[in-house]
Amino acid sequence: MRGQPTDRTANRSRVSSKKQGEPKFSAPRPTFDELLAGREEANRVNTNFLKVDADTALTFTDIALSTEDPVKKRRNVRSARKAYDTVMRLIEKVDLSDSDGRILGAKLLTLKARLEALGEIF
Asked: Which of the residues 35, 78, 80, 121 could staple to 57 if both were Cys, CB 3.0 to 4.6 A apart?
């Protein structure tokens, strides 16, 4: 039996005929409706993120406006401004509904006014 491939080595050569690293099974391609649903879900999540980020920034301004501690005030103003800038940068990448646009717009106007009252320049 020397020199003759055993069943084990014969099977190995058949199994390893694929290139290494290639998946043995490919995932089915998503349908157009599945892609659209995924995009809509991502947009919904991104919209919620922007609203939460704006709410968080408003909370930071509340803290900054109510504290006498200059270090705490500056830290919260910095955090609120960073959140404001983030929302302003990302808002163009999200398809907002009319109601979400109005809600987020009102929050951003309030936030900007508070930041200006705290000394931020736009």
From this structure: 80
> What CA–CA distance (Å, rounded) separates 58 from 77?
10
Rounded to two decimals, the pTM is: 0.72
Q: What is the pLDDT of residues 73-90, one digit of tens each?
A: 999 999 999 999 999 999
Number of domains in the chain: 1
| Residue 10, domain member (yes or no) | no
Residues 6+ apart with CB under 8 A from 6: none
| CA dihedral over 41, 42, 43, 46, signed as positive or negative | positive
DSSP 8-class letter at 95:
-
In this structure, what are the phi and psi dihedrals at residue 62, rounded to the nearest 5 degrees? -60, -45
Residue 51 domain-assigned (yes or no): yes
d(Cα 87, Cα 56) in Å, to the nearest integer?
Answer: 11
3-10 average pLDDT score: 53
Assess if residue 18 is contained within a domain.
Answer: no
